[in-house]
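During the second half of the funding period, the structural biology subgroup turned its attention to how the target accommodates small molecules. The most pressing case was sulfopyruvate, which had performed well in the primary screen but for which no bound structure existed. We therefore specified the complex as follows and requested a full 3D prediction, including the ligand pose.
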Amino acid sequence: MTTGAKPALSIAPTPLSKAAQLRRELTSPELSFLMEAHSGLSAKIVEEAGFRGIWASGLAVSAALGVRDSNEASWTQVLEILEFMSDATTIPILVDGDTGYGNFNNLRRLVKKLCQHDIAGVCIEDKLFPKTNSFIGEAQPLAEIEEFCGKIKAGKDSQLDDDFSLIARIEALIAGWGLDEALRRAEAYHAAGADAILIHSKLATADEVLTFKRDWGDRCPVVIVPTMYYETPTETFSRAGISMVIWANHNLRASISAMRDVCRKIYEEQGLVTIEGEVTSIQDVFELMGNQELAEAEKRYLTSTRKETHGIVIAASRGGKLGDLTENQPKCMVDIRGKPLLRRLVSTLNKGGVRNVTVVRGYKKEKIDLPSITTVDNDSYDTTGEAYSLSRALPHMEGDCILSYGDILFRRFILDALLASTADMVLAVDARGQGHDFHDAGRNVDLVSCTRPFSGDYLEEIEPAAVLKIGNDLSSNEVHGEWIGLARTNARGSEIIRKQLKVMEKAGKLETATLLDIFSAIIDAGHHIAALYVTGHWLDVDDAFDLAEARNFT
Ligand code: SPV
Ligand code: MG
């Protein structure tokens, strides 16, 4: 073995954990920004906008849940929201942990759980549980310094990640206790292990916050929430050496304005025309949620063997034997106990998983107006036959297909058995017709002769019979059954039919040929057509007698 010079190793830098990212933002000399979010969606939008961190605001999360910012949502309910927010984003989340949801012990559990959910840090405020939003009322009671320091220590001792940040929020200025108290608390909290101090103020100017920062210096990073002193230019904060600014509730407030606006307009206009162009498109929603990634993953992981089966229903003829009933509609639309026959047929196909159904229309085609079907037209229905109708549907005859007359009804298990067949082409054959002489039946029966009669054995389905002959005039001793007007083909079978139709077209026989002619020609050409024996559980509607029977069927 020869040893050459080692290639230079190029090691990709390990991406920073979310906790490490937040710590970097806190400790970097530049001013950083966190933007409020309160849900998976708003968190995604924060990241999309380019922010490098998220403030999971207690006020906003509560309001989005329809409750007050007074610890009305339990901490585990908040945790569930945080889990969605964290999973939906790659940037760090600083959680507004209120007062820690109890004493040091509650905070210990909270910090552990936050770390488990990949939350980068928590901010706790030195007030009492249940907390009240800082902008409500005056002189809110503050926690004792020692007790709050114990909480900070317990939180820091419980973190599962060294980079997790615990920020101590001082409410002394909000409560009117003054700057010295705020500084005293900052000193104590810093000594207890807080990674940063959040100094909160509800004044309309940044004066007290800036004074605090000047006196505090750079002993640890300082975070501010300029909700009330929003007029202060951001440049002022950066010059003062503030580490981080939290834009605390603006996604919540923006969404309230937007939702009110759209609700009002839709309510007043009772329509969507005005607002459609104003709201985010559905496509945008899909993009924001990453549907593209799912589509790609499906290609990689969803290798289903289940194939889509198309249905083709030949329903072009009038059905003259039904007399007046088909004067204004084709027979596939006659009413069977409150529903058109075709609707019942399509419903059975759909229930069996054949959802893509194409109906070939002809006579009174406008009357075939079912939803959820595709239609193709044979406008020369009165001079042509079934083969020609089928040729109209050829663009839809691809892969696995169910082929059906438009005037039959059958039980679902017959369809299921056809779909389960592995033959290239298979016809459902009613074995009750075996040996019958149909010549006096007064109707054209689609007779079938097979390689063997129906046995009814356990193995019946395992070794299907093959069709030898199909036609209307087989002699009784060769008849093994009646084709019920339902067939299934796979991709090969569909191709065979397609070619056969071409051959007939060339020979000038396409216009007049029946489906039986197609199958006969296919058998004559040496192809195998399987017979799936059934014993009843279907009917066709040819005449008034059939119709009466059909009306008892369902
Ligand atoms: C929050 O966003 O929930 C906060 C900030 O705690 S504030 O509402 O300004 O107190
Ligand atoms: Mg809050």
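Two results from this model are relevant to the next phase. The pocket of sulfopyruvate (ligand 1) is lined by residues 57-59, 69, 96, 133-134, 225, 227, 248-249 (CB under 6 Å). The chain has three domains: 18-249, 257-301, 309-553.
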